[in-house]
Design a protein that fits this description.
single chain, 306 residues, alpha/beta, 4-stranded mixed beta sheet, 4-stranded parallel beta sheet, 15% strand, elongated
Length: 306
Protein backbone atom coordinates (compact mmCIF):
# COMPACT_ATOMS: atom_id res chain seq x y z
CA UNK A 1 0.00 0.00 0.00
CA UNK A 2 1.28 3.46 -0.90
CA UNK A 3 2.01 5.55 2.19
CA UNK A 4 1.13 9.22 1.78
CA UNK A 5 2.87 11.45 4.38
CA UNK A 6 0.66 13.84 6.33
CA UNK A 7 2.41 16.76 4.65
CA UNK A 8 1.02 15.75 1.28
CA UNK A 9 -2.53 15.62 2.60
CA UNK A 10 -2.32 19.35 3.33
CA UNK A 11 -0.45 20.18 0.16
CA UNK A 12 3.25 20.78 -0.51
CA UNK A 13 5.36 23.83 0.24
CA UNK A 14 7.36 25.96 -2.16
CA UNK A 15 10.90 27.10 -1.40
CA UNK A 16 11.48 30.00 -3.76
CA UNK A 17 14.66 31.78 -4.73
CA UNK A 18 17.27 29.66 -3.08
CA UNK A 19 18.45 28.68 0.34
CA UNK A 20 18.46 32.30 1.52
CA UNK A 21 14.65 32.33 1.51
CA UNK A 22 14.56 29.08 3.46
CA UNK A 23 16.97 30.39 6.05
CA UNK A 24 14.85 33.56 6.35
CA UNK A 25 11.86 31.28 6.99
CA UNK A 26 10.21 32.26 3.70
CA UNK A 27 8.53 28.92 3.11
CA UNK A 28 5.24 29.26 1.23
CA UNK A 29 2.34 26.83 1.45
CA UNK A 30 0.85 26.02 -1.93
CA UNK A 31 -2.50 27.53 -0.90
CA UNK A 32 -0.80 30.88 -0.19
CA UNK A 33 1.29 31.01 -3.34
CA UNK A 34 0.26 33.97 -5.52
CA UNK A 35 2.03 33.92 -8.87
CA UNK A 36 1.78 36.93 -11.17
CA UNK A 37 -0.45 35.53 -13.90
CA UNK A 38 -0.60 38.95 -15.58
CA UNK A 39 3.07 38.66 -16.48
CA UNK A 40 3.12 37.85 -20.21
CA UNK A 41 6.25 35.77 -19.65
CA UNK A 42 4.76 33.82 -16.75
CA UNK A 43 4.72 30.54 -18.68
CA UNK A 44 8.42 30.83 -19.36
CA UNK A 45 9.75 31.04 -15.85
CA UNK A 46 7.08 29.27 -13.81
CA UNK A 47 6.24 25.71 -14.72
CA UNK A 48 2.79 24.76 -13.36
CA UNK A 49 3.92 21.16 -12.77
CA UNK A 50 6.75 22.35 -10.56
CA UNK A 51 4.45 24.67 -8.61
CA UNK A 52 1.87 21.96 -8.08
CA UNK A 53 4.39 19.59 -6.59
CA UNK A 54 6.63 22.15 -4.91
CA UNK A 55 9.60 21.30 -7.13
CA UNK A 56 11.41 24.61 -6.90
CA UNK A 57 15.19 24.96 -7.29
CA UNK A 58 17.10 24.67 -4.03
CA UNK A 59 20.32 26.60 -4.45
CA UNK A 60 22.88 25.63 -1.86
CA UNK A 61 25.50 28.32 -2.33
CA UNK A 62 24.67 29.78 1.08
CA UNK A 63 24.83 26.51 3.02
CA UNK A 64 28.01 27.63 4.71
CA UNK A 65 28.36 25.29 7.66
CA UNK A 66 26.78 22.56 9.72
CA UNK A 67 25.02 24.99 12.08
CA UNK A 68 23.40 26.72 9.12
CA UNK A 69 22.24 23.40 7.73
CA UNK A 70 20.84 22.36 11.11
CA UNK A 71 18.87 25.60 11.28
CA UNK A 72 17.52 24.97 7.77
CA UNK A 73 16.50 21.48 8.84
CA UNK A 74 14.61 22.87 11.85
CA UNK A 75 12.75 25.34 9.63
CA UNK A 76 11.72 22.55 7.26
CA UNK A 77 10.61 20.33 10.12
CA UNK A 78 8.63 23.17 11.72
CA UNK A 79 6.45 23.18 8.60
CA UNK A 80 6.02 19.43 8.67
CA UNK A 81 8.12 19.01 5.55
CA UNK A 82 9.35 15.43 5.37
CA UNK A 83 11.33 15.47 2.14
CA UNK A 84 12.77 17.74 -0.52
CA UNK A 85 12.99 17.53 -4.29
CA UNK A 86 16.03 19.57 -5.31
CA UNK A 87 16.50 20.69 -8.91
CA UNK A 88 19.94 21.99 -9.78
CA UNK A 89 23.55 21.36 -10.63
CA UNK A 90 26.49 20.25 -8.55
CA UNK A 91 26.10 23.09 -6.04
CA UNK A 92 22.44 22.46 -5.32
CA UNK A 93 22.84 18.69 -5.23
CA UNK A 94 25.90 18.95 -2.99
CA UNK A 95 23.88 21.04 -0.58
CA UNK A 96 21.15 18.43 -0.74
CA UNK A 97 23.60 15.67 0.09
CA UNK A 98 24.73 17.65 3.17
CA UNK A 99 21.13 18.03 4.31
CA UNK A 100 20.55 14.33 3.73
CA UNK A 101 23.44 13.62 6.11
CA UNK A 102 21.34 15.35 8.79
CA UNK A 103 18.39 13.08 8.10
CA UNK A 104 16.30 15.01 5.57
CA UNK A 105 15.10 12.73 2.72
CA UNK A 106 16.36 14.18 -0.55
CA UNK A 107 15.54 13.39 -4.17
CA UNK A 108 17.56 15.29 -6.74
CA UNK A 109 16.87 16.22 -10.34
CA UNK A 110 19.73 17.43 -12.56
CA UNK A 111 19.01 20.98 -13.65
CA UNK A 112 21.88 22.91 -15.23
CA UNK A 113 22.65 24.20 -18.72
CA UNK A 114 26.21 22.84 -18.38
CA UNK A 115 24.97 19.23 -18.54
CA UNK A 116 27.71 18.22 -16.11
CA UNK A 117 25.87 16.12 -13.51
CA UNK A 118 27.57 12.75 -13.15
CA UNK A 119 25.50 9.69 -13.99
CA UNK A 120 23.05 11.39 -16.37
CA UNK A 121 23.32 12.06 -20.09
CA UNK A 122 20.81 14.88 -19.75
CA UNK A 123 20.15 17.83 -17.46
CA UNK A 124 17.04 20.00 -17.40
CA UNK A 125 17.58 23.25 -19.31
CA UNK A 126 20.61 22.19 -21.32
CA UNK A 127 18.68 21.62 -24.55
CA UNK A 128 16.97 25.01 -24.31
CA UNK A 129 20.31 26.76 -23.80
CA UNK A 130 21.86 24.78 -26.65
CA UNK A 131 19.13 25.86 -29.05
CA UNK A 132 19.55 29.48 -27.95
CA UNK A 133 23.24 29.28 -28.88
CA UNK A 134 22.47 27.57 -32.16
CA UNK A 135 20.04 30.35 -33.07
CA UNK A 136 22.78 32.91 -32.36
CA UNK A 137 25.28 31.03 -34.53
CA UNK A 138 22.83 30.95 -37.44
CA UNK A 139 22.35 34.71 -37.24
CA UNK A 140 26.03 35.49 -36.76
CA UNK A 141 26.89 33.39 -39.80
CA UNK A 142 24.81 35.71 -41.98
CA UNK A 143 26.78 38.82 -41.04
CA UNK A 144 30.09 36.95 -41.04
CA UNK A 145 29.50 35.72 -44.60
CA UNK A 146 28.40 39.14 -45.83
CA UNK A 147 31.60 40.82 -44.63
CA UNK A 148 34.14 37.96 -44.81
CA UNK A 149 34.64 38.09 -41.06
CA UNK A 150 35.73 35.72 -38.35
CA UNK A 151 33.19 35.55 -35.54
CA UNK A 152 34.30 34.47 -32.07
CA UNK A 153 31.32 33.47 -29.93
CA UNK A 154 31.71 33.03 -26.17
CA UNK A 155 29.21 30.70 -24.49
CA UNK A 156 28.80 29.48 -20.93
CA UNK A 157 30.78 26.60 -19.47
CA UNK A 158 33.40 27.40 -16.84
CA UNK A 159 34.52 23.82 -16.26
CA UNK A 160 32.48 21.84 -18.77
CA UNK A 161 32.58 22.35 -22.53
CA UNK A 162 29.43 20.39 -23.40
CA UNK A 163 27.41 23.44 -24.48
CA UNK A 164 30.20 24.83 -26.63
CA UNK A 165 31.02 21.48 -28.23
CA UNK A 166 27.43 20.57 -29.04
CA UNK A 167 26.66 24.05 -30.35
CA UNK A 168 29.82 24.05 -32.44
CA UNK A 169 29.01 20.70 -34.03
CA UNK A 170 25.34 21.52 -34.62
CA UNK A 171 26.10 25.05 -35.84
CA UNK A 172 28.96 24.19 -38.15
CA UNK A 173 31.68 26.11 -36.32
CA UNK A 174 35.19 25.77 -37.71
CA UNK A 175 36.75 25.64 -34.23
CA UNK A 176 35.46 24.88 -30.73
CA UNK A 177 37.60 25.74 -27.72
CA UNK A 178 36.69 23.96 -24.48
CA UNK A 179 38.39 23.63 -21.08
CA UNK A 180 38.87 19.87 -21.47
CA UNK A 181 40.94 20.03 -24.68
CA UNK A 182 44.25 21.81 -25.25
CA UNK A 183 44.47 24.04 -28.29
CA UNK A 184 47.18 25.92 -30.21
CA UNK A 185 45.94 29.40 -31.09
CA UNK A 186 48.93 30.07 -33.36
CA UNK A 187 48.07 26.98 -35.41
CA UNK A 188 44.42 27.98 -35.54
CA UNK A 189 45.37 31.44 -36.81
CA UNK A 190 47.63 29.97 -39.49
CA UNK A 191 44.83 27.66 -40.66
CA UNK A 192 42.31 30.49 -40.69
CA UNK A 193 44.57 32.71 -42.77
CA UNK A 194 45.25 29.91 -45.25
CA UNK A 195 41.55 29.16 -45.63
CA UNK A 196 40.77 32.84 -46.31
CA UNK A 197 43.61 33.06 -48.83
CA UNK A 198 41.94 30.12 -50.58
CA UNK A 199 38.62 31.93 -50.80
CA UNK A 200 36.80 31.18 -47.58
CA UNK A 201 34.14 33.79 -46.83
CA UNK A 202 33.64 33.36 -43.06
CA UNK A 203 34.58 31.34 -39.98
CA UNK A 204 32.89 30.72 -36.64
CA UNK A 205 34.93 30.03 -33.51
CA UNK A 206 32.95 28.93 -30.43
CA UNK A 207 34.69 29.49 -27.09
CA UNK A 208 33.56 28.12 -23.73
CA UNK A 209 34.03 30.79 -21.05
CA UNK A 210 36.28 28.46 -19.05
CA UNK A 211 38.93 28.65 -21.77
CA UNK A 212 39.41 32.37 -21.33
CA UNK A 213 38.04 35.67 -22.55
CA UNK A 214 36.66 35.53 -26.08
CA UNK A 215 37.48 39.23 -26.35
CA UNK A 216 41.17 38.50 -25.79
CA UNK A 217 41.11 35.47 -28.07
CA UNK A 218 39.31 37.41 -30.79
CA UNK A 219 41.78 40.27 -30.55
CA UNK A 220 44.71 37.89 -30.93
CA UNK A 221 43.11 36.12 -33.90
CA UNK A 222 42.48 39.44 -35.62
CA UNK A 223 46.04 40.65 -35.06
CA UNK A 224 47.70 37.42 -36.21
CA UNK A 225 45.50 36.80 -39.26
CA UNK A 226 44.86 40.35 -40.40
CA UNK A 227 41.23 39.34 -40.93
CA UNK A 228 38.34 41.43 -39.60
CA UNK A 229 37.36 39.57 -36.40
CA UNK A 230 34.33 40.33 -34.26
CA UNK A 231 33.42 38.95 -30.83
CA UNK A 232 30.02 38.17 -29.35
CA UNK A 233 29.63 37.23 -25.69
CA UNK A 234 26.22 35.59 -25.50
CA UNK A 235 25.96 35.87 -21.71
CA UNK A 236 22.87 35.23 -19.63
CA UNK A 237 20.49 35.07 -22.59
CA UNK A 238 21.49 31.39 -22.55
CA UNK A 239 19.75 30.93 -19.20
CA UNK A 240 16.30 32.07 -20.26
CA UNK A 241 13.60 31.63 -22.86
CA UNK A 242 10.75 29.27 -23.54
CA UNK A 243 11.81 25.64 -22.86
CA UNK A 244 12.22 23.31 -25.81
CA UNK A 245 9.91 20.34 -26.25
CA UNK A 246 12.71 18.01 -25.14
CA UNK A 247 13.23 19.91 -21.90
CA UNK A 248 9.48 20.04 -21.18
CA UNK A 249 8.93 16.33 -21.73
CA UNK A 250 12.04 15.04 -20.00
CA UNK A 251 11.61 17.39 -17.04
CA UNK A 252 8.08 16.08 -16.63
CA UNK A 253 9.32 12.49 -16.74
CA UNK A 254 11.91 13.22 -14.07
CA UNK A 255 9.48 15.21 -11.94
CA UNK A 256 7.00 12.34 -11.82
CA UNK A 257 9.73 9.92 -10.74
CA UNK A 258 10.86 12.30 -8.01
CA UNK A 259 7.37 12.74 -6.57
CA UNK A 260 6.66 9.01 -6.61
CA UNK A 261 10.03 8.26 -5.01
CA UNK A 262 9.31 10.42 -1.98
CA UNK A 263 5.79 8.98 -1.69
CA UNK A 264 7.29 5.50 -1.63
CA UNK A 265 9.90 6.36 0.99
CA UNK A 266 12.87 6.50 -1.39
CA UNK A 267 15.51 9.17 -0.85
CA UNK A 268 19.14 10.14 -1.35
CA UNK A 269 18.92 9.52 -5.07
CA UNK A 270 19.12 11.60 -8.22
CA UNK A 271 16.94 10.77 -11.19
CA UNK A 272 18.66 11.29 -14.53
CA UNK A 273 18.37 10.03 -18.08
CA UNK A 274 20.74 7.54 -19.67
CA UNK A 275 20.29 6.25 -23.21
CA UNK A 276 16.79 7.69 -23.27
CA UNK A 277 15.59 6.02 -20.07
CA UNK A 278 15.10 7.41 -16.57
CA UNK A 279 17.72 6.03 -14.17
CA UNK A 280 18.29 6.35 -10.42
CA UNK A 281 21.74 7.52 -9.29
CA UNK A 282 23.06 7.54 -5.75
CA UNK A 283 23.01 11.16 -4.54
CA UNK A 284 26.48 11.03 -3.01
CA UNK A 285 27.95 9.32 -6.07
CA UNK A 286 26.46 12.03 -8.25
CA UNK A 287 28.09 14.89 -6.34
CA UNK A 288 31.40 13.18 -5.61
CA UNK A 289 32.22 12.18 -9.19
CA UNK A 290 33.08 14.41 -12.15
CA UNK A 291 31.37 14.01 -15.49
CA UNK A 292 33.78 14.18 -18.43
CA UNK A 293 33.19 15.47 -21.92
CA UNK A 294 32.41 12.63 -24.32
CA UNK A 295 35.58 12.06 -26.39
CA UNK A 296 33.38 11.05 -29.32
CA UNK A 297 32.11 14.62 -29.52
CA UNK A 298 35.68 15.91 -29.64
CA UNK A 299 36.58 13.40 -32.35
CA UNK A 300 33.49 14.27 -34.39
CA UNK A 301 34.21 18.00 -34.23
CA UNK A 302 37.73 17.38 -35.53
CA UNK A 303 36.52 15.08 -38.33
CA UNK A 304 33.83 17.47 -39.53
CA UNK A 305 35.96 20.58 -39.68
CA UNK A 306 39.42 19.51 -40.74
Amino acid sequence: MLHVPDTLHTGPYILQHAFGFLYQRKVTHISEYKPNYSDKNYHRHVNPYRIKHGLEPFEQSRVLGEETRKEALKILQSHGIEGLVIIGGDGSLTGGSLLSDLGMPIVGLPGTIDNDVWGSDYTIGADTALNTILDAINKLRDTASAHRRIIVLEVMGRKCGWLAMMAGIAGGAEYVLVPEVKYDLNKICDELKTSYDNGRRYSIVVVAEGVGSAVDIGKEIGEKTGIDTRVTVLGHVQRGGSPTAEDRVKASMLGEKAALALLNGQSNIVFGINEGKVVAIDLHDSVNNNKTLDPELVRLARVLYK
